[in-house]
Design a protein that fits this description.
The complex is a heterodimer of chains A (about 400) and B (about 350). Chain A contains three helices and 27 strands. The radius of gyration of chain A is 30 Å and the shape is globular. In chain B, helix 1 crosses helix 2. The chains are: A mainly beta (about 400), B mainly beta (about 350).
Chain lengths: ~400, ~350
């Protein structure tokens, strides 16, 4: 027995014990690890990608090009390719070829000169407020509409302040229409609805503007779901609507050469039209081709050199431009559900990201405030393209 | 042959130890979550709580941390944000429907479940914290022009407000725009320290990836920027310790790996206490201990960089994680529903769990 004991060295016992402890430790840590494949609970079902249906494309002979904007959000004046915008929501063209941009998140009015240079003409970039004054001393709150008056001054829909402002050629900003409205617990004006003299009238998130040759102003009063008219004498009225239907959230209005008024009802996913004095009627055309997401945010009537007039729409949700062809819509540029949000080129490859306000340009062209792409774009429809070439 | 009993004994010891310690390290399934989890998993010293929603209603559920059945203490529509302090739970209740949008803060006494509406709100609350004398909550005021995203002025607003727990005026601490195009993508409450509310704000991708931790006196006042970090995703605050994630210093690309920084409020410089975590790592603080979790597991962070130690691997499909004392609590999702599970975080807790098995 004694001989046998000598054959088991103490070192071996120590090694065995250490090995066992190491095994325990290894097993212990292995026990802590739960591989992805080991499940304590039943697995959820996996989601498969839905096959994408073929989407309609724009017209290859439509040309879309960038006028100004690098594409990043921000504020920078300068050359067109250097300039930064932050939420350009509307654009208006001046007689001299300059463009005025309601740069909504910058709370400022920007100008693109005929040579393309971008400057800030009113409002302090990034600072919202309400103040009349000269240039950078004026304050706006998320301006989202603009239109030029016959006298050359610019009207601005100061959307967040529920007012219309006037920017004179001398750079002075004054209040054109709209009175103070009730405020919420945060001190923000809620807007209101009151007709009457411009200084006492109330608006609620006014957005799109149009001015007729006599100086009457038409306002897409988005928050009130109606269109307002300001007479040259400064009297504000609400345009009537035919029937029981109502506008939901109109954001741009335009006038055609035959004196009709057209309204893009973004929230209502439709168009309205009627004589300038009303009543407005829901457009009876077929917009089903634009899909359920159709959200017209801009509308403009463009006269070609041949005298014909076309109505174009910006579809904010669809990221594309449509033309009203009789009682149907024809896609002219941009792609619905496009994977690439920005692209210049032909209408079949061009891409927009929440295009909003439209305004007429020279020779049958029009401009787009491409809100999501932080750019101002120019669209040259086919006939205009041929004439330019 | 005489070695055989020794070897068998050692193997038996190893097997027994593995059974005890190995099983104790597995998640211990505690309570089912019926339906969808609507709130963070709140772990207090005495209670574990959450808000769940099935097809019928949303429910505030609590369970004793020491063990015992879960119980529904409040049910109704629109419950979401939850905080527990002592024997009181505060839960946010949002009301939305045609023509109405608002909400309220409810106080629920634990464990009986008597509920009292302590504030009616203009916005829809979805996050709340209670600390000392103060209640701080986040609410959203929905868009004044639904479906018109380019009218910035009408975008939804995220509002952070505060009020004393026992009543008094509501103070608005900050208002940020909540639309997809706004420069601020959102903000989350972190906590209250010395009467100041802290929250984290993240810029939207289009406006850069800056993240800021801001603070303001609960009774209202100027905002103060505590830290600003590019690419931070998560932060936690407890007592006077603030930790947050930041891109790894050595990783190059901003989304490559994460580090964790710590700042003692009042000290000028933060310190890096962990590095090379997976992208999207989150952080927790409990009883002065910092934790980080990524897809590799839960890590306890030490005082210095490099002291991080993995406590356990991350089980699959964890949708909420919390830590209190020496235990971590997880909500693990499955096809049949979710479950709250517990895992020990310390050796002592593991041994106790092993003995209890």
């Amino acid at each position: 027995m004694q001989r046998m004991r000598k054959e088991v060295p103490p070192l071996l016992g120590v090694v065995l014990i250490l090995a066992a402890l190491a095994a325990v430790q290894a097993l212990y840590w292995r026990g802590l690890l739960i591989e992805e494949s080991q499940s304590l609970l039943p697995r959820g079902g996996g989601g498969g990608g839905a096959a994408q249906a073929d989407q309609p494309t724009g017209l290859p002979d439509v040309i879309v090009e960038t006028v100004a904007g690098l594409g990043d959000a921000g504020h920078r004046d300068g050359l067109p390719v250097e300039a930064l915008f932050d939420g350009p929501a509307a654009v208006a063209a001046a007689r001299d070829g300059a463009l005025y941009v309601a740069d909504s998140r910058n709370h400022a009015i920007r100008m693109i000169s005929p040579t393309g240079r971008v400057s800030t003409v009113a409002g302090r970039p990034g600072v919202s407020g309400y103040a009349d004054g000269v240039g950078v001393h004026a304050r706006f709150s998320a301006p989202a509409g603009a239109a030029r008056r016959p006298d050359g001054t610019l009207l601005v829909a100061d959307t967040g302040n529920h007012r219309l402002r006037r920017l004179g050629s001398d750079g002075i900003v004054s209040t054109y229409a709209g009175a103070a409205t009730p405020t919420d617990d945060l001190g923000r004006e809620l807007g209101g609805h009151r007709d009457g003299p411009a200084a006492q009238a109330q608006f609620r998130y006014p957005v799109g503007l149009a001015v007729d040759p006599s100086g009457s102003v038409y306002v897409a009063d988005a928050g009130n779901g109606c269109v307002r008219r300001i007479s040259p004498a400064g009297e504000v009225t609400t345009l009537p609507v035919k029937g029981d239907a109502s506008l939901k959230g109109p954001t741009q209005v335009c006038l055609t050469s035959d004196g009709s008024l057209w309204v893009a009802d973004t929230s209502g996913h439709g168009l309205w039209t009627g004589p300038k004095a009303g009543p407005l009627t829901a457009w009876s055309g077929d917009a089903t081709g634009a899909g359920e997401r159709f959200a017209p945010a801009g509308i403009v009537a463009v006269q070609g050199a041949s005298g014909g007039e076309s109505l174009y729409l910006a579809d904010a949700a669809g990221g594309c431009l449509w033309r009203i062809d009789g009682d149907r819509l024809a896609l002219i540029a941009g792609g619905q559900q496009a994977e690439v949000p920005f692209q210049d080129g032909g209408g079949d490859v061009a891409r927009f990201d929440h295009p909003a306000g439209l305004t007429r340009g020279p020779a049958g062209t029009f401009y787009v405030a491409d809100f999501g792409n932080e750019r101002i774009r120019r669209v040259i429809p086919p006939r205009a393209a041929k004439e330019r070439d | 042959m005489r070695r055989l009993p020794v070897i068998l004994a050692l193997l038996a010891i190893a097997g027994l130890a593995y059974r005890l310690f190995g099983q104790s390290a597995q998640p211990r399934l505690l309570w089912p979550v019926n339906g969808r989890l609507l709130s963070p998993l709140v772990a207090d010293d005495r209670w574990i709580g959450w808000v769940e929603q099935d097809e019928i209603a949303s429910r505030l559920v609590v369970a004793p941390r020491k063990g015992g059945p879960r119980r529904t203490v409040l049910s109704g529509e629109g419950l979401s944000g939850l905080t527990i302090e002592g024997d009181r739970a505060f839960v946010a209740r949002a009301e939305a429907g045609p023509g109405r949008a608002g909400g309220a803060l409810e106080q629920v006494t634990l464990p009986d479940g008597g509920a009292t509406t302590i504030a009616s709100l203009v916005g829809m609350p979805d996050e709340i914290i209670a600390s000392g004398d103060w209640l701080v909550w986040r609410s959203t005021r929905r868009s004044a022009l639904p479906g018109v995203p380019f009218v910035v002025a009408a975008a939804p607003l995220i509002v952070i407000q505060a009020r004393r727990t026992e009543g008094g005026p509501v103070h608005t601490l900050t208002v940020v725009r909540g639309d997809r195009s706004a420069s601020t993508a959102g903000c989350d409450l972190l906590g209250v320290v010395d009467g100041q509310a802290y929250w984290i704000e993240r810029d939207s991708p289009g406006a850069g990836l800056q993240t800021r931790v801001l603070r303001a006196p609960c009774q209202g006042g100027d905002l103060d920027r505590v830290i600003e970090e590019r690419g931070s995703r998560a932060a936690a605050l407890q007592d006077d310790v603030l930790i947050w994630t930041a891109p790894s210093l050595d990783a190059g690309a901003i989304d490559s790996y994460a580090s964790v920084k710590r700042l003692h409020i009042g000290h000028p410089q933060p310190e890096v206490i962990a590095d090379w975590l997976e992208p999207g790592a989150g952080v927790l603080l409990s009883h002065g201990t910092a934790y980080a979790h990524d897809r590799n597991g839960l890590w306890r962070l030490g005082r210095r960089r490099g002291d991080q130690r993995r406590l356990f691997a991350r089980p699959p499909r964890v949708i909420a994680l919390s830590a209190v004392g020496d235990h971590g609590y997880l909500v693990m999702a499955g096809a049949e529903g979710s479950v709250v599970a517990q895992r020990p975080l310390t050796w002592w807790a593991r041994i106790k769990a092993a003995v209890a098995l």
